[in-house]
Each structure stands twice: as structure tokens, then as C-alpha cells.
Amino acid sequence: MAQDIFEKIRKNRGPIGQFAKGVHGYFTFPKLEGEIGNKMTFRGKECLVWSVNNYLGLANHPEVRKADADAANQWGMAYPMGARMMTGQTSEHELLEQELSEFMQKEDTILLNFGYQGMVSAVDCLVDRNDVIVYDSESHACIMDGMRLHAGKRFVFQHNDMESFDKQMTRATRIAEQQNGGILVITEGVFGMAGDQGKIKEIVEFRKSGKYNFRLFVDDAHGFGTIGEKGMGAGEAQGVHEEIDVLFGTFAKSMASIGAFICSDEHIIEYMRYNMRSQMFAKSLPMPLVVGARKRLELLRTKPELKENLWTIANALQKGLIDAGFDIGGTNSPVTPVFMKGNLAEATNLTFDLRENYNIFCSIVIYPVVPKDVIMLRLIPTAAHTLEDVNYTIETFKKIKVKLDNGDYKAEELASVEIDK
After folding, report:
1. Peptide bond preceding 368: is omega within 30 degrees of 0, i.e. cis?
2. Edge-to-edge, what's the strand order for the sheet holding 39-42?
3. Predicted model pTM
4. In whole angstroms, what is the distance from residue 155 CA to residue 236 CA?
């Protein structure tokens, strides 16, 4: 007799879900309330927030709020109805794609309803069973899920390790030649956990040398709007923007909205328009999101002070942490990780202390995302933060580091807390 799949689920809640009863509503699925900014409300108290990807501070920019409100008033959230291929096409959608193409200096652009689903479908769209994928080991979950749909071979290289990349490319080339297929290399512009940029320039050098033939797909969700002189991303910062064959960006980070896009050569984008299942069979991006994205892109393009303000905060935060003796890894983006030694219980108690006693809300990352006995606090500086926020955070981190080193967080619990259900 077949198993009852629901009974199987009841017995195995998953690697994170097994802790749900004790963490839901506090450490997972927390509610940050109020206007998006440097300070928001958590459990009825104002907290200094370092966990919102509002890089350029556009979430509550008056011009953005007005554009969103005017578009919602004019169009509502329903228009256009249907997928773009059928009844969901508008001039506004086309204009946004044209403006993104001009800003990103690529021939053409396709809008995506969501970044995650768009990436999954894009990977599936670009390769067939005879093609081979080579990807960085720390690629985002959306890339991993896209590769699950790939019926062909895939090889992973160790994170930003070019010796490992070389080895996997040799294997991939052999398979591709045997199957008369091609090779798609996938990496990220900025890795969202540790903040280090992908080694796009070094990967491109392998192709320029003639050693390997491949196409390069870069997910630059965190780099778009934040990295490079104009904000085009890590490729621009590394001087190889034109060498990126397919470039993914999202509206969910620097643009503080919903949606995403892919830029590439015109014939590639045309192919994707007619073959990306997540876009062909999904409702078109609602008009207020499209109009709002155009306003956000305008501000990103015409107000460089937004990015300058972001980097003022990011540089001050990162320099201050380093000067205070903290390990922030190899970040070369606004994403600021802080690595400490400690186990799961210590990580839990430390985070509780930060939120309840110091009113600082930041994300905590533990094993298996980072090695065992490593605690990573992930800070996202934005243009909405202040230097006072930076100074307070660094002074607070000094205090919690002393507590951690003294073993204060080894107690089973700091205090009881009623977690919302």
C-alpha cells in the first residue's frame, strides 16, 4: 500500500520547519510594521532595522509614493488582465522595457512578474537536455530551482574559486561536445548573504582566452542600482558589463517594489518572450507596478545622490565594524555580514538580546547556510539610515560581542517571550 503523503509530512517538517513551533512569529515570519525606513515597529516597540532591502531609500520617497498612488487610482490593480502574449500588453510595459534597455546598455529587455519565478523559468528556457550548466556553489535558491527543471548535466564550482571553475568547465566542455550541446555559466553579481561580488571578470577572461566557449548568465539582484558608476551592477564595476550575455535584475531591492527583468541581445529576448513559461502563462504585471517602476528607474538614473547616500552609510558601517575588530568577510557591496563564533542556542539568545534590549532588528544566519558554530548577522545599509544609526549599532555590537565571549548567551533562554501565533 502506498504511503500517505500527509502522514510523511507530519513526521518530517523539514530542516527549518522542525523548529516552527518555537520560532514562528519571532525569528521566522516576524512582523515589521509601519512605514518602511531605518526604524520600524516590531512587537509594539520601535526598532532600528537593518533587514530591509530598501537600498536607495525609495520605498517612501514622495515622488515614488505619488506615482504609485496616482497609477493605482487611474488603473486599479486589475489592469491589464491576462498574460502579455494574449491580452496583457500595454504601451507602459513596452516603455519600461525600452527604458531598462537604454539604462542597462543592452539591446532588449523582458519584464518578469516576479524575480524568483522569472529566474526559475529563464534557466529552463535557455537550455535543453543536450546543454550543460556550470554554476557557482552559492547561487541563489531561484537558480537552483531553475536547474532542477534542466534535464541535462550540470556542474558546480566552489564559490568564486577559479581553479574549481576551470576544472568544472573542462568536464562540461567534454560532455557538451559529446552531446552537441552548449554551456551556460551562471553566477551572481553580488551574493546576497556574504555581499561579495561574483568573479565575473575572471570568468570572462576564460572565454576571451579561447580556452572555453560558453554563454554567461549573471543574477545581479543586489548589484542593480547599487554597484557601478551608473548603478548598472557588478559587471559595470568590474569593467565587463558588455561581456555579460544575459543579465537579471529585480525591482525588489534597490527599486523597493515587485517585479524583475532580463536584459540581453534582441533575438534572445524575443525567444524568451515566446518560450518563458512563467511569463507566457501568468497574468501581466499590474499597471501601478509598471508605472511605479518607471518612476523608480527615473530617480535611479537622474539622482546619483541616492546611491552616494547609500555608500556613505555602507562605508561608515563596514569601516566602523572592521575598526572595532569584527569580521565582515570579503564583502565589496553594501551587504554587510558580521561573523561570530557560537552555536544555535547562543545565536538565538544573542538575537533576542539585540531585539528586546537594544532595539536592533537584523537578520541572523546559521548552519547550514554558514558553517557549524558560526553566527552571521546580516546587515543591509540603506540611504534611509543615518550615521547615528551606524554609530549606535557598532557600539551595541561591541557589547554583545563581550557577552558572547563571556558565555552569557549559553543560558538556555534569556527571558520568556510570548510569540504571536
Report:
1. yes
2. 32-33, 39-42, 45-49, 360-361
3. 0.92
4. 27
